[in-house]
Design brief:
By secondary structure, this protein is an alpha+beta fold. It has 3 domains: 76 residues, no CATH class; 249 residues, Magnesium transport protein CorA, transmembrane region (Methane Monooxygenase Hydroxylase, Chain G, domain 1); 89 residues, no CATH class. The chain has 11 helices and 8 strands. The strands form 2 sheets. A 6-stranded antiparallel sheet has the order 4-3-8-7-6-5, sandwiched between helices. A two-stranded antiparallel ribbon has the order 1-2. A hairpin with a 4-residue loop joins strand 7 and strand 8. The longest helix has 70 residues. The radius of gyration is 43 Å and the shape is elongated. It starts with 30 loop residues before the first strand and ends with a helix. 17% of the residues are buried.
Length: 436
């Protein structure tokens, strides 16, 4: 049954060498068995008792072997999805008294699913990396599954399982959350009142999530407000680049906060899930009615308002960035128009001088112009050239001012409006004269 794992040797090629002893079963740890009904083993290799079989040492080369298919075979057989450690999940367990019974313990997926009555798709929503921004709150028969920011938790009536988030670097937030969770889960905690076990766990999770969002929002607000205030003094390319980077980060944070607000809102809109959050009463055999969930609804609405406030604040900050970008674009456009206007003035001046020098160039030709002996010839030509230059410059500057003037209505519409006003006055005057 293990023969398909081995590479068959052909008549013209030598069998490649397998370097993983654990992928071939039924063979000693130091050798790999190859099957070839026709070819004899290479020189220097021991043959087995069965005809056509020979043994190849694991660490020894095969004479004449030039094949590279072995590496591909090994990679495909040892894919990480087939490794046994991927069937394990690491989590920390809190008991009913808020004490840690298991710290970063490893549990098999199948045992975890069967023990807590979960489906594989439920665990898949929790088995995500730290970069996952899609929040999840699932209510099951005897448990609550939560995936919010840095928290992956399974809440039961008398137990809380915190799944390790691989790739998370904010160990301080994790430590503060675990300390706060353990403190709130203790039965001697009088500040939590008469809230059941699962509600205390929910509140600890939401407090940590809202605190993380609020801290990140303050960082973004401080950085972006500083950049915006600097842009009011001086518009610099480096500042605009920093504003673009921070704007992208703020947009990602806004999306993350909005998704958390929406998932809480979705939970508030579902009466069945709100009633299903009372795990302690359900475990005692007294499940809540569908419309009897005022305590948990008030709890969720409190944190929904906090999250919505964060979303609105960040939305206003994004709006300020957009307004600043529009103002910067207007200023840059105005500066560009001013430079173009200055360039046009220089071109108009050059055109006027070119008109004057054109007349001078005509008289510069070595031809008779009949004013060589005239006393006023030089003064006349100079005056005409100067007047032509001044006229060209004045005419085009006037045209430039007319083009530069920006109005909401065209000149034709203005003229039409004036004519209509004059005609209306004449009609009114004629009407008054006829009535007399």
């Amino acid at each position: 049954m293990f023969r398909p794992l081995l590479r068959l040797c052909t008549k013209t090629t030598t069998a490649p060498l397998l370097t993983k002893p654990h992928i071939v079963l039924g063979v000693t740890a130091a050798t790999v068995r190859y099957y070839s009904p026709t070819k004899k083993p290479p020189s220097g290799l021991p043959a087995t008792s069965a005809p056509g079989n020979y043994l190849v040492p694991i660490n020894g080369p095969v004479p004449g072997d030039t094949s590279r298919d072995t590496d591909l075979l090994i990679k495909s057989l040892t894919h990480k999805s087939l490794l046994p450690e991927n069937n394990l999940v690491r989590c920390t367990v809190f008991d009913s008294d808020g004490n840690v019974t298991v710290a970063s313990g490893e549990f098999k997926r199948t045992e975890l699913l069967s023990k807590h009555g979960l489906l594989p798709r439920d665990l898949r929503k929790l088995d995500t990396g730290v970069n996952s921004i899609v929040p999840t709150i699932l209510v099951r028969d005897n448990s609550i599954l939560i995936n919010l920011l840095h928290i992956r938790a399974l809440i039961k009536a008398d137990k809380v399982l915190l799944f390790d988030v691989f790739g998370s670097t904010d160990s301080k937030t994790q430590s503060l959350f675990m300390y706060d969770l353990g403190h709130k889960l203790k039965k001697s905690n009088k500040t939590m009142g008469s809230l059941p076990y699962e509600m205390r766990a929910l509140e600890a999770i939401f407090i940590s999530v809202i605190a993380a969002l609020d801290a990140e929002m303050k960082v973004h607000t401080t950085v972006i407000n500083g950049i915006l205030s600097e842009l009011e003094q001086d518009i610099d390319r480096e500042k605009l680049r920093h504003l673009l980077i921070q704007s992208k980060k703020l947009s990602a944070f806004l999306q993350k906060a909005t998704l958390i607000r929406d998932v809480i809102d979705e939970l508030l809109d579902t009466d069945e899930d709100l009633a299903g959050l009372y795990l302690t009463e359900k475990k005692a055999g007294h499940p809540r009615a569908i419309d009897d969930h005022s305590e948990v609804e008030m709890l969720l609405e409190t944190y929904y308002k906090h999250c919505d406030e964060i979303v609105q604040t960040v939305g206003n900050l994004v709006s300020n960035i957009r307004n600043t970008e529009e103002i910067v674009n207007i200023i840059l456009d105005a500066n560009r128009n001013a430079l173009m206007h200055l360039d046009l003035k220089f071109q108009i001046g050059a055109l006027g001088l070119a008109g004057g020098t054109f007349i001078a160039s005509l008289y510069g030709m070595n031809l008779k112009n009949f004013i060589e002996e005239s006393y006023w010839g030089f003064l006349g030509v100079t005056g005409v050239a100067s007047l032509l230059t001044v006229w060209i410059i004045a005419h085009f500057l006037k045209s430039l001012r007319q083009v530069q003037r920006v109005t909401m209505t065209s000149d034709k519409k203005k003229a039409k409006t004036k004519k209509d006003t004059v005609a209306e006055k004449r009609r009114n005057h004629l009407r008054n004269w006829l009535t007399k």
